[in-house]
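Cross-posted from the bioinformatics board.
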Amino acid sequence: DAGITQSPRYKITETGRQVTLMCHQTWSHSYMFWYRQDLGHGLRLIYYSAAADITDKGEVPDGYVVSRSKTENFPLTLESATRSQTSVYFCASTIPGHGGEQYFGPGTRLTVT
Amino acid sequence: AQRVTQPEKLLSVFKGAPVELKCNYSYSGSPELFWYVQYSRQRLQLLLRHISRESIKGFTADLNKGETSFHLKKPFAQEEDSAMYYCALWGGSQGNLIFGKGTKLSVKP
């Protein structure tokens, strides 16, 4: 499929488990982002990447790890999931100089029990 | 500090009524402002950007630098406008798109 996709769309896991959320885009956008969406907080940036092998922290990076070995993929890993990480996670991408115009994936709804 | 404030969590109007979703920002330079929309269970999508001064789906937004505001307006609301609306500010740094907390618009028949 063209565009930006996320998998899984829904995930239930237990506290302490490792979870990886996948993000894939077909546009060859150099910039990719991970956000979490929570009631009362809106969208908050977790990590972003300017290119393959270049990543940087956003507003709420604690408890998360990212990697970007290929331009098209930007997985997000929760190394030891906690209940506070229950959220909807959105991946997004854009091109240089257009950071305000981001294209979002469909989201992953993660529940940590 | 860079900040985007959307003072209303929920805005409820009747079909055909005018709508104004408020957005105020705090930024020391010249930011670019955007409105994003998220319909129920769908992904976020860009609705408007202030630099293009366009009207999308009947919505307009004017950047008022004096009042540091970027309110979203529509003269006659439709039921299909019901959604979550986010105001966002971009300061020019790629990792720096700041979102407000969002306003849920509910348009009643």
